[in-house]
TrEMBL record:
Name of the protein in its database record: Sodium:proline symporter
Its membrane topology: Multi-pass membrane protein
Catalytic activity entry: L-proline(in) + Na(+)(in) = L-proline(out) + Na(+)(out)
GO-annotated cellular components: plasma membrane
């Protein structure tokens, strides 16, 4: 396999063409006097086509494509399925909760803003802080993917690639915010899906077609050859199941599109994005399986290089350019969403609802703050990208951190007894336990192992209960909790603690749920949910 490079001139021309077109599109929708609310939520009135395409493009990001391929290379046949299937459910499971959230606050900008109206400052800032961290890690992983792609396929260095990607994304997103992100997403997803349909089969047949599965079978272990690999499930699938609701609730890029889409189009938008994401990411993830069968070693020992390495080795120049644009489009579509998400959080949750207060917020100053946030976030992500973290590890980490927030956040939207004290203590305690286990500071041995296994069973019940509750209501949700715990208890004891990543994620769910329920149960004050719509509204209209 002789890798083909694009060359410096061709790489720069492709980047110039891609980011030039997106910049022109952004200019075409720009306004001389931007509106702060429109900058964050696009007027809450985006139609089905653009919303579904934007949601799909936002989640078919370069990090997902790379991480799915890494999962295939590491765990074999079932790796991409575990990654793509549970990743798709991240999108689907926001639908029932999304309808509830929009009904409570039709004009909100962020989930943290709703928590400010529901609980107050500390709960709001906990969620806003985790959202900022998650979006910054997501932005970093996209820059890493872009730098790896450019350094692999051209003479340009990794750091130069990161700089080019960061500058291009910032250029077209800075002025119009979420509107620029969503409109360019529509163009990007059309090109991306078309490229996937062409590129993946071409690499497969160029590498040898179906004969690969016979000739390369010796390169796989028994676990890697199985569609029902327990190794893949407990190391990849199960942690992602735990992350499903966490991403849905904790990720502002999803929430921002939830607030932007027309309220009557929420279901269609999220179902369409679920199907599009799952099919595409599983398909691209099979390239990692292909690399495993062929016996390819990742360049420089970095698994992030697998996809560009395969493309450079098996695609002719014209289709290599198509592949290059596909990956650039996928990472740009999420990077611009992360920038828009972080700007809306700082504009709304830090300045709008806290520093200025609702009556004192100045929309034009908010816009300036949002744009400065984008610039600062881009600089920070570029700095962190220089460390070249493993993308798959970043995704699992941020999903688990958000797991501590899931139950308290969802309960706050349905149960009128949840208060600020219960919310804050439960989240902080869950984050502390998660950190102790995830870092290995708390050895999972002896009595501690037994206790963590028992709590992990509770965590499994909480996840199952929330998933069922969203679609079928409280009774079905409680029944799912009991059934899930009874089924998993016999094999979980003495077993689950052997998987610290999974255990840490499940403990975050269990600890936050137990403490939130206990601390809220005897609360005599009952919250009036009608107050949320009155306190989570638009900024521009209140000053006119």
């Amino acid at each position: 396999m002789q890798p083909m490079a694009l060359g410096t001139t061709l790489t720069l021309l492709l980047l110039l063409a891609f980011f030039g077109i997106t910049f022109v599109i952004s200019l075409s929708i720009s306004k001389k006097q931007e509106n702060a609310d429109s900058y964050m939520t696009a007027g809450n009135n985006v139609g089905f086509g653009i919303s579904a395409a934007s949601m799909t493009a936002t989640w078919i990001w370069a990090a997902s494509l790379y991480a799915s391929a890494t999962s295939g290379y590491t765990y074999g046949l079932s790796g991409p399925i575990h990654y793509g299937l549970w990743g798709a459910l991240m999108i689907l499971f926001i639908y029932p909760f999304g309808k509830r959230i929009r009904s409570l606050a039709p004009r909100a900008h962020t989930l943290a803003e709703i928590l400010h109206a529901r609980h107050g400052q500390s709960s709001q800032l906990l969620l806003a802080g985790s959202n900022l961290l998650g979006s910054l890690l997501s932005l970093t992983s996209n820059f890493i993917a872009g730098g790896a792609l450019i350094s692999m396929m051209s003479p340009l260095s990794f750091s130069t690639g990161v700089l080019l990607i960061a500058g291009g994304v910032l250029l077209y997103t800075l002025w119009s915010g979420i509107r620029a992100s969503m409109l360019t997403d529509f163009i990007q997803v059309c090109a991306m899906l078309g490229a996937v349909v062409i590129v993946v089969p071409m690499i497969f047949f160029a590498a040898g077609g179906s004969s690969i599965f016979v000739e390369g079978a010796q390169n796989l272990t028994a676990q890697q050859q199985s569609f029902f690999s327990s190794d893949a499930f407990f190391n990849q699938g199960a942690p992602f199941i735990a992350a499903v609701l966490a991403y849905a609730i904790g990720n502002q890029t999803i929430a921002q599109r939830l607030f932007a889409v027309r309220e009557d189009m929420i279901k269609q938008t999220f179902v369409t994005a679920t199907v599009g994401y799952g099919a595409t990411v599983i398909g691209v993830g099979m390239l990692g399986v292909l690399a495993l069968y062929i016996g390819i070693d990742p360049a420089d020992g970095d698994v992030n290089n697998l996809i560009p390495q395969l493309a450079a080795g098996y695609l002719p120049l014209a289709f290599l350019c198509v592949f290059f644009i596909m990956i650039i489009g996928s990472l740009a579509s999420t990077a611009d969403s992360d920038l828009a998400a972080m700007s809306s959080i700082v504009m709304t949750d830090i300045y709008g609802r806290n520093i200025a207060g609702k009556t004192g917020a100045k929309p034009q100053l908010m816009l300036l703050i949002g744009r400065i946030t984008m610039i600062v976030a881009t600089g920070m992500a570029m700095y962190f990208a220089s460390s070249r973290f493993d993308i798959l590890d970043l995704l699992v980490l941020v999903g688990a951190i958000w797991g501590a927030l899931v139950f308290p956040v969802i309960a706050s939207f349905y149960w009128n007894k949840v208060n600020n004290t219960g919310f804050t203590i439960s989240v902080l305690a869950a984050l502390a336990v998660f950190t102790l286990v995830r870092t290995g500071w708390l050895p999972l041995e002896g009595t501690i192992a037994v206790v963590t296994d028992l709590l992990s069973v509770v965590g499994i019940g909480v996840i199952a209960g929330l998933m069922i509750f969203g679609f079928f209501g409280l009774r079905a949700g409680v029944a799912a909790v009991v059934v899930a715990m009874l089924i998993t208890l016999p094999f979980a004891l003495g077993f689950l603690h052997q998987y610290p990543v999974l255990t840490a994620s499940l403990l975050a769910y269990a600890v936050s749920a137990i403490l939130c329920v206990v601390l809220s149960w005897f609360n005599k004050d009952e919250f009036d949910f009608d107050r949320i719509a009155r306190h989570a509204g638009q900024f521009d209209t209140q000053n006119t």
